[in-house]
Write a structure and sequence with these properties.
Oligomer: single chain
Distance between the termini: 36 Å
Bound molecules: 4'-deoxy-4'-aminopyridoxal-5'-phosphate
CATH superfamily of the largest domain: Type I PLP-dependent aspartate aminotransferase-like (Major domain)
Strand content: 15-25%
Number of helices: 14
Largest sheet: 7 strands, mixed
Structural class: alpha/beta
Strand order of the largest sheet: 4-10-9-8-7-5-6
Protein name: Cysteine desulfurase, SufS subfamily
Organism: Russula earlei
CATH class of the largest domain: Alpha Beta
Number of domains: 2
Number of strands: 17
CATH topology of the largest domain: Aspartate Aminotransferase, domain 2
Shape: globular
Length: 407
Amino acid sequence: ASPIDVARIRQQFPILSRMVKGKPLVYLDNAATSQKPQVVIDALVDYYTGYNANIHRGIHTLAEEATAAFESTRDTAQRFINAALREEIIFTRGTTEGINLVAYTWGRQNVQAGDEIIISAMEHHSNIVPWQILCEEKGANLKVIPINDDGELLMEEYERLLSNKTKLVSVVHVSNSLGTINPVKQIIDLAHQAGAVVMIDGAQSTVHMNIDVQALDCDFFACSAHKLYGPTGVGVLYGKKHILEAMPVFMGGGEMIKEVTFAKTTYNDLPYKYEAGTPNIADVIAFKAAIDFINEIGKANIAQHEQDVLQYATAQLEQIHGLHIVGKAVEKASVLSFTVDKVHPQDLGILLDNRGIAVRTGHHCTQPLMDRFCIPGTTRASFAVYSTREEVDALVAGLQKAIQLLL
Ligand code: PMP
């Protein structure tokens, strides 16, 4: 049973009452991006209508109000992932930028020829390509933790890959394609024993589970606001203070400097050292409303509700003849990927859309993972706090109809 009043929560998301192709929208693409509650939309409108101004530099009232709201998101985000210090919270455009920032700064300073970086077989392209670029530039090597057929990391293989050559381990907390929840605490501890630094891709995990970067003891953690009921174009990169302080700068420009002369420039303190230029002020401010929204419901309640929908959906989909669930990890978040014999995912996606049902089809930016399963892609349904069993029923009916038409 669900611990939350889903009907009441759905009313807070205006988009959920729209029609698509004459049918009520059934939005099951939450792993790509979640919908936004009215409080988040209001925060954006309030900023632009009430106190739009550039931050940090101004002494006038609007600038002060905007700066206070912007910096207040930093405090909220700090508590949300339990970082020890507010200056360990760096605003980025999203997870992708967070990972790239680390690759281009920490990576360039610390990775040399012959060094090794370990990722896993289930990484999103954004946690593969930046490391490939770095390895190519430095003559370092990328190693990959393999997975079993259920989509779980082979931890013994991981231990075998670790050595004194390992400089960095960067793994996804929750797989966007499989839903697997990885044992990141164990991964981090083993990496630290080998003397390596650890980055966690929290793009999918942060919305579904409690995040405590101090308990995890990860060195870097990246996430995106838009998967947390917040706006696009905003993310957080967490890094341990002593590591961030020792890292070279990333982008140069306004805000990240202390003093500039043509002879020499000194850099600003954390976190501003990594926030060059005018940031995405409105969206950072609205991100706070999204975190407050999640905190008000409670992550444990959200997780319990999503697990209920996931288990119901898994049981229902398993009844469909010729359907195979991809990703059967014991520890799973609310992502359900599947293939159907002799049916292309894209055809399924189009027929479902005709019934107002939004799912994702394709490789989900995890092509090497699809290769591992010898499939071109999957159809993926992913659930959120507002997902219901009735929506799962609509998905199942839509799938049955589509399969009938296509076979
Ligand atoms: N990692 C994972 C696991 C993801 O699911 C995503 C988003 N699909 C990303 C990284 C990249 O996030 P963003 O596009 O918000 O930068």
